[in-house]
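Quarterly update from the structural biology core.
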Amino acid sequence: MFTKEEIMNLLKSDILTLKLKPGTILSETALSERFQLSRTPLRDVLKQLSLESYIDVYPKKGNFVSHIDLDSVEQMIYMRSTLEKEIMKDLASQLSLKEMQELKEILDAQKAAIREENAADAFLGLDDQFHCTVYRLAGREFLWNLIQQSNVHYVRYRKLHMLEKGKLLQIWNEHQRMLEYMANKETAKIDDLVHHHLREDINSLEFLEKFSEYIKK
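Predicted structure, tokenized:
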């Protein structure tokens, strides 16, 4: 027997990892059988998922995994870009050797993950770990946690981009340069790099055409 919280977390994970793709119908009957849970508590779970934008509920039609909202993605990119430029410049003035090593070890693990089968999931986890660590070392972990609360569209957008050939190595190289700029206090170079790192693909026609079925119209 699953608790409502466990079901919520499992469904969120399935949606964020694209195991449940945008537009997929979530049958109450199938979910009730899968989790051995009656309809009433299951509807509580679905209602909460709807409030957090994981699913869309259409009366008389059903529950569907939400399509990726590029407006939400752009807003998230804008916020992260604005914050991370300042956070990295602040951190450059105070980064210790121990903290540099902590970030380097994450990047070493991320580079190794590129060679793994189904690399995107492990790489994405380490991508988050790198950025989260930057926020934490700068004393801005609260802001990172705040970002995670409204991340459903952005996470899936990133996951789709990481399916592109060569994309993982490009992202890793940019992380490596971020660390080098912070370590060498080359703060004048940080703005352009962060801007490119976070915003390069948001207007990609190739992305829109390739994954149009997943994008909110």
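The mean pLDDT is 94.
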